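Re: export button greyed out
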Amino acid sequence: MATSADPSLDDRETESRRDPADYEIPNPQPRPQGEEEELLRIWARPRGWRIISAVNNTVVGIGYLGAAFLFFLLAGVLALLMRTQLAVPGNDFLSQELYNQIFTVHGTTMMFLFAVPAVEALGVMLLPQMLAARDLPFPRLSAFAIWAYVVGGFAFFSTIFFDLAPDGGWFMYTPLTLKEFSPGDNADFWLLGIGFIEISAIAGAVEIVVGTLKTRPPGMSLAKMPIFAWAMLIFAAMIIFAFPAVILGTMLLEIERSFGWPFFTADKGGDPLLWQHLFWFFGHPEVYIIFLPAAGLVSMIVSTMARRPLIGHDLIVVALIGTGFFSFGLWVHHMFTTGIPSLSLAFFSAASMAVAIPSGIQVFSWIATIAASKGKFRINTPSLFVLGFLFIFTIGGLTGIMVALVPVDFQVHDTYFVVAHFHYVLIGGMVFPLFATFYYWTPMVSRNPLSERVGRWVFWLMFAGFHIAFFPMHLTGLRGMPRRVWTYPEGVGWDTLNMVSTIGAYIFAAGVLVFVVDLIRRFRPVITGGSSPDNPWQAGTLEWLPSDVYSTRSIPLVTSREPLWDQPNLSKEVEEGRHFLPNAPTGERETIVTSAVDGKPQYIIRMPGPGFAHVAAAVFTAAFFLLLTVKMVTLAAACAVAAVVAFLLWSWGLDKGPGKGEVDIGGGISLPTYMSGPSSHAWWAMVVLIIVAASLYLSYVFSYLYLWVVSPQVWPDAASSALPDAVWPLASAGLVIAAAGLVLAAGRLLPPPGRKSPAVAVCLALAGVLLVAALGLNIWSHWQAGVRPAQDAYGAMVYMAAVLDGQLVLAVLFLLGVAAVRSVVGRLDRVWRVSYENAALLSWYCAAQMLVGLVLVNGFPRVAG
Amino acid sequence: MKQGTRIPALAKLLPFGTLAGCAGMQSALQPTGAEASDIGTLFWTVTGISVLTFLLVLAFMAGALKGSPGLRRRISDQRTIVACGIVLPVFVLSGLLTYGLLVMEAGSTRTASAEGPGITIVGKRWWWRVVYETPDGREVVSANELRLPVGRPVAIRLETEDVIHSFWAPQLGGKLDMIPGRTNVLTVEATEAGISRAQCAEYCGGAHAMMAMFVVALPPDEYDAWLAAEAQPAASPVSALAAKGEAIFAEYGCGACHTVRGSAAAGIVGPDLTHVGARHSLAAATLANDRDAFVRWIAQNQHIKPGNLMPPFDMLTPEELAALGAYLDGLE
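Workaround output, generated via the alternate export path:
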């Protein structure tokens, strides 16, 4: 049956019911000549300057990680400048103005440009290897995200050299960051830089969710997935729910700064605390967004160095999920001193303590695994960094419990005690695991490993320097030194402690410097040629399979969580091409898509190769926002047009169609090369994107209701003339529903394969027109009722709903337009339909959001007033 | 020594010079207030528990790395993970949470017991307006120093006229933010007489580092006497130099921003100077309070505290500055 060319659904279902034991793996026959050469040709990296068009995850992953590490070094230099300034009281090494810029850029860079991108980069680099996928499912999307991040990140960071850097703190509290108190462009550069990180983080999250759920090797059920992939899956889910809050927050802040819509101005019914809620609803999960992948890496390294599977694996997975869940119930613990009611304080205090339990489970599971080592636990540089992580992170966790106690937080909040606490958590919880990762995984991507001998120096310098720098800060804070002060008076009891901290910071930096020297001497990425050592740690997971530019020679059938330990000869079989997809049957880049839960093969995904359109899209998008920030509107508009053109060029070729039929992937099975509907990776990605949009909208609904609770006096009552007559929202709703119906009708009208259909194009175009009309009518109805966005918080919130609908409508128009054109040129039919499905899904979500908005904005004041 | 307080000779502190001997005057670990004492006890309790927990983890790590096979087997038992990673934390954390909530509750009780006239502190960039209420209901405006009666819980209303600030006097108790559009009430009770230091704890831009003040706790009778004196208009200049200073103060329009009750100066942009000479510091604990400091501040304030709203009067002659210094220093 496997060779049948009939792509009927029944056959595929039979396929996914098959037991892995039935696959004819390893393939008995020898592989045909020239097969590997073809793989090499198809997956070849672009040479020379064309490397910027590359999309291979190993290439962009290293670039991504390198850029993130560069930001770590740059922000570290800023930290040294601050420590130098604070070494002695009353110092004037840095001016007040520069210091305020430096601590803002240090925090922002470390959190947004280093920590999150670094763990995303590890996901891009390691996940496909651990899953033995040939690449991530959307290679150009990752490359786009990275280019946007690199351009935006360096533009943001360079402001420090021009005295243009933001100086409102990485948390950018309003009203300090509103136009009145921060009149320059500085704060806008912060918002700009963060905008890019938001884009790249979301793009990365889509990639990682779909990658871990859909591109695992055959046989790898969720239960057999490496723990790092679990951590990354939860990481991506957290980004999807947490980042939209800060995306909305930054939108509101930039709109208030530019147009005076008073979301955060108390005099007009806004509330500065709204910003804090939005920021910390993102900001606290952010800490775990950084920590969870690191914990996943630690789990992998501990297991390898103990030469045995992780003890408490299932508990750890539950702990990861629990951490992700709890982390959304903690944000108010950053706001204990804002005067919120004691019942809320009690709730958030309890939640903040509860999150310690999943961390406790992980710590004791790691220790248990170390204790259960086969022989002794191997001590080398990666494991030293892991042990250092356990040591530091435990202290950080315990001081975390202290600050979760509300009365203690009343004292230590915004002091150096908290500075000490979160550096223990973040450097201990993320930077030490990252260095363990550098030492552990370098042999996977480099011809040489890093030096073990030098590694000991790096570890001990960093470990000692860290404690000398940050341990005294607990005491400095308890003795009353607040954070974010550029200098301090002599004799309050802070002088010696600060000097010690400064010395420690330099020792830590020396450790990092030694690492950089070793990196320069030893790191020779295999993407420049040559090959890496063979599984030097005798690890059990798939990233240590022999690999080349095409990833592994064939994609293994996996029957265990540590396949290299439990499946003898796997490396050899894979390298001889005796597992799945040893060839390139469609003649293009491809990998296997498997079912989300049990890892049964479903179809072959055909992936795009190197290209320039996504690079241009990233650069022009970055240029657009940058030019807008410096108020060069005309040029900005030109860049926007260029970006849209680039997006069109990029997306046009993505829906490749069913033309290649079914192909044999070895093991006695054939798979289709095209898939639509809920099995397809595109469908999953669109659903993830819709969840992002829905989270964003939920943040808006929260903000609307929150401001109403704070300032009901600016909301109109039911009888007010400021509410549009009910006929207008009803008419808008009718248009929206009609648009959704037209999209549905277009789906029914899709022609048989090979035919063109103007009727489909007309339906889709008309749907777009109706959505725009509904939006316009909605805006007009409030305008004619006399409501203006800058008048008060109510007006601002009314028009903000339209802004959110508007950006969504733009995206829908883009997709509908592409689908309409495709239907006219014969690239859209009943089978070749992914372009239509994506457009339909997003337009239905758009319709739903607009209807919710109409009910909220027009209905709520009538009920509540 | 000013205003007959019992504070040792700290009066002429040099906040940005030397505070030798006053280390700990901003320390949460040396409480001189009821709330700070309660929190201190809670803090030491949780610190003790944390140290024990940390030692436990270290012992496990040592056992896992170097222990006998039997010990390693016990550490690697899944039941150990459940006991140490779940059961133990649940019990310890529940106890701590309850204790913490009880301390919070004690604070609320104190708030309920705060009767009598309160104090309003308004955060400004980068100083504090302090408004006392007298027993007969009048308001007395002062700035950049807080005086409190010992043993009497006082409700302090915290407000701001610009960005978010946070009032924090660590020796008395925890901090509470000053947020636009809101009034937060913090109740403090000084338990012993003395002087301590408070500082803005929420980053408020620019010279946030120089937004501090001294908190002077006085025995209740001395406090009442001081407040009665503070309510009086400014003293007249006692020397010819000071009288000349008063004239210069008027001539250069200082009264447009500053109030000196009993004179024509009635500005509200800057700190009230009616009794400025009696305070322990200038410019929100940025400088000591003496004639030289006044002179330096008036001429070079933008260098000392960059970005503050006061223009630098560096066009004044040394003689004029000296006269102004004499006048202001005499406003006790």
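Chain B touches chain A through 93 residues (CB under 8 Å). The button fix ships in the next patch.
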